[in-house]
Amino acid sequence: ITRFEGGHSRGAILIFGAFYFLSLLATRYSFSLLDDILVKFRQAKHKNNKLGVIIYGAGRAGRLLYDQSTTLSELDQYNVIAFIDDSEGKTGTRHAGIPVLSKDNISKITGVEGCQEIWISTAKVADSKVIDLARKIGKNIRIRRLYIDMTEIDY
């Protein structure tokens, strides 16, 4: 029994909707925050005995390469410390809890300690771009490119 003939008041529905929306935002933010905390914990745990890697490309391929580096035992000796991306919209953000840097901001890239390798995550990035970047950084850096290969299995 309500004091309104048609059911609940409009105010109660609006308050419930606002509460639901804020709860949804809080839940999504908490997952993002938890992911950042876990990434920092993993990096701090293995920081001293791993080789530092910067991934060139912060799109889907970069995320795939990062995910594989954290799950495959063959890549266990590497620690992704930053992403580099040509897209201005991605620079300055975080990708999987790791900073995305601009290739034009050499001072920030050279300030990243422990970088021994640059991994190119996509075929869209020309080798010459990454070689120029490695020369600008001025360190002896190994450059590697991700290739995805499909092989047929004979049976």
Q: What descriptors fit this protein?
A:
single chain, 155 residues, alpha/beta, six-stranded mixed sheet, 6 strands, 20% strand
Give an overview in words:
The chain is 43% helix and 20% strand. It has four helices and six strands. It has helices spanning 10-46, 60-71, 106-111, 127-137; strands spanning 51-56, 78-85, 94-95, 98-102, 115-120, 142-145. Strands 3-4-2-1-5-6 form a six-stranded mixed beta sheet, with helices on both faces. It is elongated. The termini are far apart. The relative contact order is 0.13.
Outline the secondary-structure elements.
Layout: H1 10-46, E1 51-56, H2 60-71, E2 78-85, E3 94-95, E4 98-102, H3 106-111, E5 115-120, H4 127-137, E6 142-145
Parallel strand pairs: 1-2, 1-5, 2-4, 5-6
Antiparallel strand pairs: 3-4
